[in-house]
Design goal:
Layout lengths: L2 E7 L2 E6 L6 H13 L3 E7 L4 E6 L4 H9 L9 H4 L5 H29 L4 H24 L5 H14 L3 H32 L6 E6 L2 E6 L8 E5 L7 E12 L1 H4 L4 E4 L4 E2 L4 E13 L5 H11 L6 H28 L2 H4 L1 H4 L3 H21 L2 E3 L2 H9 L2 E5 L10 E7 L5 H12 L5 H12 L13 E3 L3 E6 L2 E6 L1 H7 L8 H8 L4 E7 L2 E9 L6 H10 L4 E5 L4 H11 L3 E3 L4 H13 L4 E5 L5 H6 L2 E4 L5 H6 L2 E3 L5 H37 L4 H18 L16 H9 L4
Parallel strand pairs: 13-20, 13-22, 20-21, 22-23, 23-24
Antiparallel strand pairs: 1-2, 2-4, 3-4, 5-6, 5-7, 7-11, 8-9, 8-10, 8-11, 12-24, 14-19, 15-16, 16-17, 17-18, 18-19
């Protein structure tokens, strides 16, 4: 494929390519192939102008150009041939950016052509009237329904301009309304794409029932009619109907209702819902990706409860001000007997700017969060996290690296370490927790084949452990509370001393067989290097108190809290107790943010004012969380805090500017210092300027980020924002 380089800086090239007439499918296919190659970090193909934008490691420039040159314009890949699971978000974002640029160009071109073409006066006025029809229709609909809303005020301002002979002013109002609308739609579309690609948990594999046995298969191979086996803690990857078992499902992701719903044989279940307790076998009625996304995104977009309080306030305030605008118009008309001066309060209003600028600010912040790998399920949670003054942390997988490893295996009978580890891996492979993954990984590292181990139904007891039957014997594996308190397993003499001597700061997974302790698995999970710095930065950003809730032992919890500077910790805490602690802190007047990753964290996540799930979180934790963090660094919490605080500062600053300046424009128009036309022009320009300003990055200023740690600034720089 022939190309010409039109612009180049280190690591970024824009090319004009000989692509011919290609459609969006081929454009996405080319972008996918480029990113799949591993040579480029990001690729955008714009069919309209035959351009290709790529970002890459500068050292691989020649390889990138050679790869591009190898494309055959007559046989370009298509998105439906390649599939875009891994890169669909980036490609769809690029497509949306291209659509926005085309729409923006059209709006400006239409305006300039109208002003430059030597059209007869009558045709110009007919054109203005035709463009005014949608606005007048919207206003009329509000009027006949007796709703004094912003649409009625816009229609009144356009009508007043036309009746007063200010045809150019009417055109200017409609131009700015269209421009603001295009911008608002663009921000909303980007936020929608981020939600669609970030809200839903994409499991790599699922358990399918094949010939009566549970077999792990790739999610991509799931077909309609297939039977899947789902354990507690899973998020359903498909729509289906229950054919066996019972369970309690959290359907908040679909309905917004947090109450658990009981499901049994014959019940319908939906993709994106979380199985909190129980065991289900379901028949697939819709394969992955067919039905789950649209419903969830629609819920997020339409639920008024998920809007930021400031956004909802802006919408209410905008509509509430409309009657006062009309009242002021008639009052001024009665006092001044001057229609021109009275019209100023119709042409200059507070409602339009407030209603347009606030959702753009919130949507832009959610979009910026998505660029950092953070999905925010509603503007409400930006506001809550900005106000949070107490943060509750889980320990394992949150403050630790979520890459635990087995330090040692202790046997309390005549079996070897490997025998016990193989048995544990066979049971733990069914559950998506970091501790379980550590056991399975260690078994694989040692070359232990646990796949052939026979066992019956595995029952997960939330935050405690697992109970199953193996070889006719009941096997339990889990926490000390589960085995020794709930199951009544006795400690062998000297077991505590032996465990503590070998692993004084390790987390311990115990295993019992028929009520007798047979082994202990000591697991170490090092702290994240950035954890102490993150807590220090968050404290600087206004968080007053930090609490760690963990099911781990007292000595492990105390050691972690001391190293990180955490104000308070509670060890050996149960899931229901975690929730109680969160509720207690809220009752004390704190705005509580909960950060967790495990199945055992889900009750506390749901009870907090705002909840955050880390990158390696369980399916159910991600389903419950208000903010999902998809990158691996705790520094993301600092970035989210900054983003949340700055968007709220931006909104409040907008309020003050809009009220102050528009009041001045109205005063100038009423007193005659400026003409009504000038006042209206200044108002429209202010609305446009504020809306445009609200699309700018909140985190790009290096000066504003000077208080951050080197790690946080590096994360910003990696995203080309610092």
């Amino acid at each position: 494929m022939r190309y010409t380089i039109t612009n180049e800086i280190a690591g970024r090239i824009r090319l004009r390519c000989d692509l011919g007439f290609i459609d969006d499918g081929e454009a996405r296919g080319v972008a996918y192939d480029l990113m799949r190659s591993g040579l480029v970090r990001h690729a955008e193909v714009h069919p309209a102008n035959q351009s290709l934008l790529v970002r890459f490691d500068p050292a691989r420039r020649e390889e990138v150009l050679a790869f591009i040159a190898a494309f055959d314009p007559l046989r370009l890949p298509r998105e439906d041939e390649a599939g875009l699971e891994d890169f669909c978000n980036a490609i769809e974002m690029a497509s949306e950016n291209n659509r926005f640029q085309m729409q923006l160009a059209f709006v400006f071109m239409r305006r300039w052509l109208f002003r430059l073409l030597p059209l007869p006066l009558a045709m110009q006025r007919i054109w203005v009237l035709l463009r005014a029809i949608p606005f007048l229709r919207a206003g009329w609909q509000r009027l006949i329904h007796r709703e004094l809303k912003v649409e009625l005020l816009d229609a009144a301002a356009i009508s007043a301009s036309i009746m007063n002979g200010n045809w150019g002013e009417a055109g200017q109002i409609m131009f700015l309304l269209n421009l603001s609308g295009v911008m608002e739609d663009h921000v909303a579309s980007r936020a929608r794409l981020a939600l669609r690609n970030g809200l839903i948990t994409r499991a790599d594999n699922v358990w399918a029932v094949i010939d009566g046995q549970d077999v792990r298969i790739p999610i991509a191979s799931v077909t309609k009619g297939q039977i899947l086996h789902l354990n507690a803690g899973s998020v359903l990857p498909v729509d289906g109907s229950v054919v066996e078992g019972e369970g309690e499902l959290n359907e908040a992701s679909m309905t917004g209702e947090s109450r658990l719903v009981h499901k049994r044989e014959g019940s319908t279940v939906y993709a994106g819902t979380a199985l909190e307790d129980g065991d289900l076998k379901i028949r697939v009625t819709a394969p992955p990706g067919v039905s789950r996304i649209d419903g969830i995104v629609e819920m997020v977009e339409q639920s008024a409860q998920l809007k930021a309080g400031a956004q909802s306030k802006a919408e209410r305030l905008s509509d509430a001000l409309v009657p006062y605008n009309f009242a002021a118009f008639f009052a001024l008309l009665a006092i001044t007997r001057n229609v021109q001066k009275a019209m100023t309060v119709l042409m200059v209003d507070y409602s339009c700017a407030i209603k347009l600028s606030t959702p753009v600010a919130v949507g832009s912040a959610m979009d910026e969060a998505a660029n950092f790998g953070m999905t925010v399920k509603g503007g409400k949670y930006l506001e809550k996290f900005a106000a949070a003054d107490l943060i509750v942390f889980d320990k394992t997988g949150t403050l630790t690296k979520a890459v635990p490893h087995v330090e040692s295996v202790i046997s309390f009978d005549d079996r070897s370490e490997n025998e016990l580890l193989k048995l544990a891996a066979c049971i733990e492979e069914h559950f998506p927790h970091s501790m379980a993954r550590a056991i399975v990984s260690e078994a694989e590292r040692r070359g232990l084949d646990h796949q052939k181990e026979l066992h019956a139904e595995v029952k997960y007891v939330v935050a405690h452990g697992i109970r199953t039957q193996v070889g006719g014997k009941e096997v339990c594996i889990g926490s000390s509370h589960f085995l020794f308190d709930d199951e009544g397993v006795a400690y062998p003499e000297g077991a505590r001393e032996r465990i503590y001597a070998l692993a004084p700061t390790s987390s311990i997974i115990y295993m019992a067989e028929d009520g007798k302790l047979v082994g202990a698995i000591c697991i170490s999970d090092p702290l994240r290097e950035e954890a102490a710095s993150v807590i220090s930065q968050l404290r600087t950003l206004g968080v007053k108190r930090f609490v760690m809730l963990t099911g781990d032992s007292e000595n492990v919890a105390a050691n972690v809290a001391q190293q990180l500077g955490i104000d308070e910790y509670v060890s050996r805490v149960l899931p229901e107790d975690k929730r109680s602690y969160v509720e207690k802190y809220r009752a004390e007047g704190y705005t509580v943010a909960m950060v967790g990753d495990g199945i055992n964290d889900s009750p506390a996540l749901a009870a907090s004012d705002v909840s955050l799930a880390m990158s390696d979180a369980s399916d159910i934790a991600r389903a419950v969380a208000d903010i999902s963090i998809r990158n691996t660094s705790l520094e993301s919490l600092v970035i989210m805090r900054l983003l949340s605080q700055r968007v709220m500062q931006r909104i409040h600053r907008d309020y003050r500017a809009i009220v102050a300046l528009n009041t001045g424009f109205i005063a100038g128009g009423v007193t005659g210092l400026i003409t009504t036309t000038t006042a209206a022009f200044l108002h429209n320009e202010l609305t446009f300027a504020v809306t445009v300003a609200n699309t700018r990055s909140l985190l790009k200023s290096a000066k504003a980020n000077a208080e951050l740690s080197d790690g946080t600034r590096a994360l910003l720089e990696d995203h080309h924002l610092a």
